[in-house]
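User: Sequence recovery, please. Input:
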């Protein structure tokens, strides 16, 4: 901070720099608690006296300003100093005690909760069972048998109610899409692992995949890079500010883009849009959660998520420069925007293309569970209109056993998606009329 410069940046100087320095030092000592580490040195510019005040980052947060019998805490937003909201004050208190939210003990007993999703993921990634002692070393359980907040967030039936995921596929380019505002919506709760898997699944079921034939195969062109969606959602769930109550992670899908919103800005207080993505170091708001997700193979501990999001887009067959992912943050929120790689691209307007779009719309609108809808899409992608198939083929494509496969085919017939073909037990997808 410089004293002796006016609001327009002009050097006006100080009449008595020595006296001003004494007043500034005294006011800092009298009105700031705890006493901050600072240096005040004289400077001279164009024959005029200035003072340069340097205040070093402190660890004993929060720092209070005392005046007229009132103690208040301020933060800087843009070019203004504003009184901190309660959740920011809580962050500063934790920082001053060298604690993080996820490492704090909760009121919930470890023995009252199951961790089947966590155990399953750990087994898949490491090949080993999650031993009981690891719940302590992972800081999921404290010495008294209580869940830490990290443990509560990873329990199958998480008791932290504001840890939820809201997903919406809006009709159009914004949230006011006409007669039908939302084409699809879902709300998920439970373990962070459940939220992650369900969120990625929601995007996949609301995403169209174009493809083009090559000499020996075909090139698939999804609307969104699944890797980018995965990385962005991991960051949103792990690095969100859980001290902000009444706010959840959101996925909003529009015709031309999707946005992933999470409560809380950058952990270091900077603005992501003003940073070089390639040079951002890892600053973890919830280090316990980040460490566990690293052990599960969901993220890297050195913090390369932003780079992976953009690199996956750069590598997409249908990527264009104007579709580069966008990042935005402020004091209270973080948002990633991923653009629909297929939006605005010229598509072949053949009768077959239009029929394919009609069937995909029918499948998307079915009143069935998400796994069922995904299995139907798998069958349609493999068989199209021309391939005749039987129950054994359905079992092979979906991995279902005989009875669930029969039930799936019954639903297809009941919704007029398949019809009998030549041969007993043979079916094909119904080709819509042009």
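Assistant: Recovered sequence (434 residues):
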């Amino acid at each position: 901070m410089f004293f002796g410069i006016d609001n327009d940046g002009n050097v006006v100087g100080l009449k008595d720099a020595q006296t001003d320095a004494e007043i500034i030092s005294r006011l800092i000592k009298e009105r700031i608690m705890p006493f901050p580490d600072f240096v005040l040195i004289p400077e001279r510019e164009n024959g005029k006296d200035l003072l340069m005040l340097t205040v070093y980052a402190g660890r004993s947060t929060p720092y209070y300003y005392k005046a007229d019998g009132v103690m208040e805490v301020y933060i800087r937003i843009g070019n203004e100093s504003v009184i901190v909201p309660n959740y920011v004050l809580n962050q500063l208190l934790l920082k001053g005690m060298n604690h993080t939210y996820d490492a704090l003990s909760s009121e919930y007993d470890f023995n009252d909760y199951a961790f089947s999703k966590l155990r399953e993921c750990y087994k898949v990634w490491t090949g080993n069972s999650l031993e009981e002692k690891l719940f302590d070393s992972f800081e999921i359980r404290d010495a008294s048998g209580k869940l830490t907040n990290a443990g509560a967030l990873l329990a199958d039936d998480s008791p932290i109610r504001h840890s939820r995921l809201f997903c919406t596929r809006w009709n159009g380019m914004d949230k006011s899409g006409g007669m039908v505002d939302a084409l699809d919506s879902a709300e998920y709760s439970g373990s962070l692992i459940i939220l992650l898997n369900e969120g990625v699944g929601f995007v996949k079921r609301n995403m169209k995949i174009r493809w083009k034939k090559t000499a020996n195969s075909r090139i698939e062109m999804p609307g969104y890079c699944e890797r980018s969606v995965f990385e962005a959602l991991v960051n949103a769930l792990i690095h969100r500010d859980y001290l902000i109550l009444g706010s959840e992670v959101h996925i909003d899908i529009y015709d031309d883009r999707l946005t992933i919103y999470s409560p809380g800005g950058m952990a270091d207080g900077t603005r992501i849009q003003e940073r070089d993505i390639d040079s951002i170091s890892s600053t973890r708001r919830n280090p316990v959660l980040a460490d566990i997700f690293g052990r599960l193979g969901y993220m890297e501990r050195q913090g390369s998520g932003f780079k992976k999001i953009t690199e996956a887009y750069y590598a997409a067959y249908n990527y264009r420069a104007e579709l580069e992912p966008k990042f935005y943050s402020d004091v209270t929120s973080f948002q990633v925007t991923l653009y629909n790689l297929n939006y605005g691209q010229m598509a072949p307007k053949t009768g077959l293309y239009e029929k394919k779009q009609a069937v995909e719309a029918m499948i998307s609108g079915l009143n069935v569970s998400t796994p069922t809808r995904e299995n139907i899409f798998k069958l349609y992608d493999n068989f199209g209109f021309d391939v005749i198939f039987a129950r054994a083929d359905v079992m092979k494509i979906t991995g279902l056993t005989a009875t669930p496969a029969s039930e799936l085919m019954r639903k297809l017939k009941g919704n007029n998606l398949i019809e009998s073909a030549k041969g007993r037990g043979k079916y094909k997808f119904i080709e819509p009329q042009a």
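The chain has a mean pLDDT of 87.
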